[in-house]
Amino acid sequence: MFHERYWKGVSAEAKDLITQMLNVDPDARPQAAALLRHQWIGAAKPALMKTSLEESQARLKDFNAKRKLKGAVAAVKATNTMNNALKAMKSTKSSSSAN
Q1: Do 2 and 34 share a structural domain?
Q2: What is the pLDDT of residues 32-72, one digit of tens each?
Q3: Which of 61, 73, 88, 96 is a good FRET partner for 55, with 20 to 30 A between their CA atoms?
Q4: pTM reported for the whole predicted model
Q5: How far apart are the first and last CA of the chain?
Q6: What residue numbers bound the domain in which 94 lies?
Q7: Distances in Å between the alpha carbon of 58 and those of 20, 55, 61, 74?
Q8: CB atoms < 10 A from the CB of 14, how many?
């Protein structure tokens, strides 16, 4: 369930909490009060402060850069498609008016 590439820096307690929260059976899923008593929620701040988010930030920046590039490519493709359609319409219009 937790791919090592993305979850290697996440504690077992955090993964346990997430697993409980993602239970598809509402009757088996813990209520909010029970989740708030989970050991990860009560984790000491110093333990959480040791966790580095630098790798996650780098992956997020990479993801956003790829997303923006894909959006730009899609915009260029749409513009080219529209220009080609307009050229085709103009050439069809000019050839029919010439006859």
Answers
A1: yes
A2: 888 888 888 875 556 656 666 777 788 889 889 999 999 99
A3: 73
A4: 0.45
A5: 67
A6: 53-99
A7: 28, 5, 5, 24
A8: 19
